[in-house]
């Protein structure tokens, strides 16, 4: 390492110069030709234009990251390198390169190269810091989006569960209303009343001679009267039962209301389940908007094909950022260009038959 670079290291790290011990002179080799020695560098601090210390620049550009944040990001361990080590590595690399080409460079050229190397390294540090800041910003933004997505998913799951419970309850009520409207169950007391009336009707007809007992002549003349009174008694009992359970017209209105409610709940449940499937990363159909059902692209929109392919490409990238599986074929799809979806010449024109 040359005196010039040692001065630079001392300036950046704050170390004092230590005089190197005298080196033993190697034995003369008769066949070897000596390499030309570079010109001596100026004294410390006399290197021309002042340059900011590389070690200080590294420390200034370094970013402090808490250990908890690294653990949350999945980092289990880190490799640590000190600014002095970076300065030493860069200095040795630069000195080796200059030593190999020292016979082609004079002192001013060597100074210029060293200065440009230090400036270029400082610029790389600045760019690295900017890229790291952008990366952290994107990670934070992605974490916020994932958190919002999880919250939205939880809300959708709660809505789906509530809709399912309401739908099941209304379907049960609808079945009960249909059973009540289609068939009336006669209570035991009503059956007793029906038997009492029929027995009284039959006894009166027998006493009047219109209805004979078995084996006592022809009972046919009184059958018509018996049937009429029997039908009237049954109808009266049924009317009483319907009145007890509610009017048939009211039951029909209740049935229609419940049917409309069940249909509405079914549609709402289907939409919410679709939104939940899209949010959880289920496979999308080709050309389908990621936000279908909540303001998606209309099929009647201008340049629909191009916009649909563009939305699909954005959807795949979003799914990949969220950590969902994306196949290689989907990832390698070409980016949609508007020119690929322009109508061909003659499209839409009526052909002359």
Give the averaged pLDDT, no decimals: 66
Report the β-strand fraction as a percent range. Answer: under 5%
Structural class: mainly alpha
- Gross morphology is rod-shaped
Order of helices and strands: HHHHHHHHHH
Rg, rounded, reads: 48 Å
Q: Percent of residues in helical segments?
A: 55-70%
Q: Count of helical segments?
A: 10
Q: How would you characterize the largest beta sheet?
A: none
Number of strands: 0
Structural overview:
- It is a single chain.
- The protein has 353 residues and is mainly alpha-helical.
- Helix 2 packs parallel to helix 5.
Describe the secondary structure blueprint for this structure.
Blueprint: H1 3-13, H2 54-61, H3 67-72, H4 83-100, H5 107-182, H6 188-207, H7 223-245, H8 248-279, H9 304-321, H10 328-331
């Amino acid at each position: 390492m040359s005196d010039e670079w040692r001065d630079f290291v001392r300036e950046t790290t704050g170390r004092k110069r230590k005089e190197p011990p005298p080196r033993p002179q190697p034995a003369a080799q008769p066949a070897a030709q000596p390499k030309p020695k570079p010109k001596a560098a100026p004294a410390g601090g006399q290197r021309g234009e002042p340059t900011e210390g590389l070690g200080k620049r590294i420390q200034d550009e370094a970013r402090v990251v808490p250990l908890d944040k690294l653990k949350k990001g999945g980092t289990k361990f880190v490799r640590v390198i000190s600014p002095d080590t970076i300065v030493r590595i860069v200095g040795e690399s630069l000195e080796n390169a200059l030593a190999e080409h020292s016979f082609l460079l004079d002192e001013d050229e060597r100074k210029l190269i060293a200065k440009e190397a230090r400036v270029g390294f400082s610029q790389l540090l600045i760019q690295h810091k900017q890229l790291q800041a952008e990366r952290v910003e994107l990670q934070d933004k992605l974490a916020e989006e994932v958190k919002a997505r999880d919250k939205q998913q939880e809300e959708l799951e709660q809505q789906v569960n509530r809709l399912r419970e309401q739908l099941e309850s209304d379907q049960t009520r609808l079945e009960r209303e249909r059973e009540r409207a289609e068939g009336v169950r006669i209570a035991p007391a009503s059956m007793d009343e029906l038997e009492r009336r029929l027995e009284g009707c039959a006894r009166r007809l027998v006493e009047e001679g219109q209805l004979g007992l078995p084996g006592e002549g022809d009972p046919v003349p009184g059958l018509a009267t018996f049937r009429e009174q029997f039908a009237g008694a049954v109808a009266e009992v049924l009317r009483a039962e319907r009145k007890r359970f509610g009017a048939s017209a009211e039951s029909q209105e209740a049935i229609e209301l419940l049917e409309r409610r069940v249909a509405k709940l079914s549609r709402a449940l289907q939409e919410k389940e679709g939104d939940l499937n899209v949010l959880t990363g289920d496979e999308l159909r080709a050309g389908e908007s990621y936000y279908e059902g909540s303001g998606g692209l209309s099929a009647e929109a201008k340049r629909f094909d191009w916009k649909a392919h563009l939305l699909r490409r954005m959807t795949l990238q979003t799914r990949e950022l969220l950590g969902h599986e994306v196949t290689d074929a989907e990832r390698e799809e070409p980016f949609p260009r508007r020119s690929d979806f322009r109508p061909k010449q003659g499209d839409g024109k009526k052909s002359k038959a």
